Amino acid sequence: MTNEINLFESTLETCLINTSRVEAAKAAEEKYDRDQQLQMRRKIKQILEALLFASSETVSFNKMREIIETFYPIKPRMLREIIEQLQEEYISQGRAFRLEEIAQGFVLRSCEEYAPYIQMLFRHKKSEKLSQAAAEVLAIIAYRQPITRPQIDAIRGVDSSGTLVNLLERELIEAVGKLEAPGRPTLYAITQNFLTYFGLRDLKDLPQLDLGAKR
């Protein structure tokens, strides 16, 4: 009887030891997975920063995902979380720039309080401000697109040919087709560069404006 008890106790002790080892191994494996996950997220965050610093234009969410997925498996939700972490970090760390979402993409932009210093850096460069005529035509296209030159001229009361050429060269507008009407005039619409230029996410961010009855 004593031998049976000793055998039972020995077996129980062995089981407990084995269970403890299994749990320890499982915990170690879970810790390794967490560490790997954190390491991957840090690397993805660094890649995002590199892409944003290297680009002078907005970088779309899909382009970010396409590049990162070449090296790391990532779901849209995780990528969005990492982007939001970067946004929060730049604010909490008091950085001189912010990660902003505009024109259906993301871009690093300096904080407004540093504008005077940046203006001094570029003060000798040629100004690229829009003329009054360009601003008028651009506003009409933004609110009425797609729209033809004759329709723009009718709203403004003057010829807009030269202004349209200028806006096309600056890639703020683009030709998007032909109107099915006599002469088949070209239809114009704004571009992604327009959204970037004015710091807009999309056309919904445009202020409400009454341009009169559509002709």
From TrEMBL:
InterPro entries from the UniProt entry: ScpB_csome_segregation, WH-like_DNA-bd_sf, WH_DNA-bd_sf
GO biological process: cell division; chromosome separation
Pfam annotation, one family: SMC_ScpB
Keywords in alphabetical order: Cell cycle, Cell division, Chromosome partition, Cytoplasm
SUPFAM superfamilies attached to this UniProt entry: Winged helix' DNA-binding domain
Superkingdom: Bacteria
Segments traversing the membrane: none
Name by which UniProt lists this protein: Segregation and condensation protein B
PANTHER family: SEGREGATION AND CONDENSATION PROTEIN B
